[in-house]
Amino acid sequence: MSIIKDIISRYNHILDFSFDEFVISDGEGVLLYANAACERHYGVKVEYLIGKHTSELEREGIYHPAVIPLALKERRKVTIIQDTQIGRKTIVTANPVFDDTGNIELVVVNARDISEVSDLKEKLEQTQQLVKRYSEELNVLRREQIEVEGIIAKSKQMQEIMDLIRKVAPTSSTVMLLGETGVGKDVLARGIHKVSKKKQGPFIRINCGAIPGPLLESELFGYEAGAFSGAKKTGKIGLVELANGGTLFLDEVADLPIDLQVKLLQVIQEREMMRVGGTKHIKVDARIISATNKDIETMVHDNLFREDLFYRLHVIPIRIPPLRQRPEDVFAFIQHFGHRLNTFYNINKQLHPQTIDVLVNHDWPGNVRELENFLERLLLTVDREMITPEELPDNVFRKKVNVPVGQRTLNEILSEVEREVVLRVYKRFGSSYKVARELGISQRTALRKINKYMEEP
Ligand SMILES: Nc1ncnc2c1ncn2[C@@H]1O[C@H](COP(=O)(O)OP(=O)(O)OP(=O)(O)O)[C@@H](O)[C@H]1O
Question: What is the ipTM of this complex?
Answer without folding.
Answer: 0.98
